[in-house]
Amino acid sequence: MYVVCIQPDKTKQDYLATVDVDPKSPTYSQVIHRTFTGSPGDELHHSGWNVCSSCHDDPSLKRDLLILPALNSAKVFAVDVGSDPRKPKMHKVIDGSEMRSFNCSYPHTTHCLATGEIMISTMGDKDENGKGDFVLIDSKTLKMTGTWTKGNKTANFGYDFWYQPYHDVMFSTEWGAPKRFKSGFHAEDLSDKTLYGTSLNIYKWSTRELQQVIDLGPEGCAPLEIRFLHDPKSAQGFVGCAVNANVYRFYKTSDGTWKADKVIDVPAKKVSKDGVESEINGLLGDIIISLDDKYLYCSCWMHGDVRQYDISDPEHPKLTGRVQLGGVIASDPDIKVLEDKELKERPEQVTVKGKTLQGACQMLQLSLDGKRLFVSSSLYSPWDTQFYPKMVKEGGWMVKLDVDTVNGGMKLDPDFLVHFGEEPDGPALPHEMRYPGGDCTSDIWLASD
């Protein structure tokens, strides 16, 4: 498995770690290779592939490059994972000046297109003000060719995106203005429409035009990860809204427009510290849907729990599993819990293979058979430093949950831990994880009647 690792020390290089997840291997649950970016302070974040899995019938196309855009530098790294999958090597670096020349910065999500292009969503303009846009890269030449959006309308903010050709639609989500969120989380920013987004942006896929905007309001502040159901004919999916830890279901209506309803609401915890009362929201970081569209998983980075929901009835998700993995209450003994609507006992820190896990659960990746859910701990290094300084100092981690795919439920595997505290360049922060060849979040399938 390939794991993006960020160096909190911005004088050092980020890297792609190759992690052995084969339980029969002598190097099981170890980092077996590191592919460094070659430059400091990039802030790698998410990744994607150079070509689609649906191009398998074209022998000239190979899924052999992992595309790694960097938030801070706006560089795009193309990593060769085809020549030696266990020891990837840097293939090409697209300088950040190319992206900024198209008035874009802070690249986030990468998807391959059936046209033979690579598309990357961006969150900022060249000056790091909020702007939702998309850059295109030719997958053969790896040259950045321009932006995808046409028409007069552009989204106020950007983040993730998912397209669904069968319904001629693409959805994109919103975080906020990079020049502000890169300095950390500031609660006073949430009500400022110039700093944080609350909308789903809906494009007509064939014409590349923004056609509809759904404002989710304060409850939907910072809608981040978005997933259609994997069934390519399905006209519905889910989006995780970070700040208030809510999940909305979006769906197509009879008149061809789209709507969104809140279907999961993780309650805040009432706490006090130093005599001051407040509420701690979950901060929902990631969501993922199993390939059979049966389960949705999400992580609450502030509360520190991974949650499994049965979405067989998408309008009424049912909580079927929950595992505690850290969180702010567990990490701070001075916080007193006044009201917790879900837990009877105070959450505690978790120890795996003799190591106490600092921080909390953040990114998720699920095996294709749905039985192994991998979890990593880093959200974004400035926010990691703000909320979990011990994790930054001691290093992040990656653990595995074993999933009951029949009845629902999850349990922590006590024998799997990748701890990034003793890496060659010092403690690192693991974020997104990818399976070689594709996984539950990398592929969008086509369908015909």
Q: Name the beta content range.
A: 35-45%
Structural class: mainly beta
Anisotropy-based shape: globular
Distance between the termini: 35 Å
Q: Percent of residues in helical segments?
A: under 10%
Strand order of the largest sheet: 3-2-1-33
| Average pLDDT metric | 96
Query: Compute the gyration radius: what is it?
Result: 20 Å
Largest pleated sheet: 4 strands, antiparallel
- The count of β-strands is 33
Stretches where pLDDT falls below 50 for ≥5 residues?
A: none
- Tally of DSSP helical segments: 5
Please provide a written account of the structure.
- By secondary structure, this protein is mainly beta.
- Helix content is 6%, strand content 43%.
- The protein has a four-stranded antiparallel β-sheet, with no helix packed on it. Strands 4-5-6-7 form a four-stranded antiparallel β-sheet. Strands 8-9-10-11 form a four-stranded antiparallel β-sheet.
- It is globular and about 55 Å long.
- The model has no long low-confidence stretch (mean pLDDT 96).
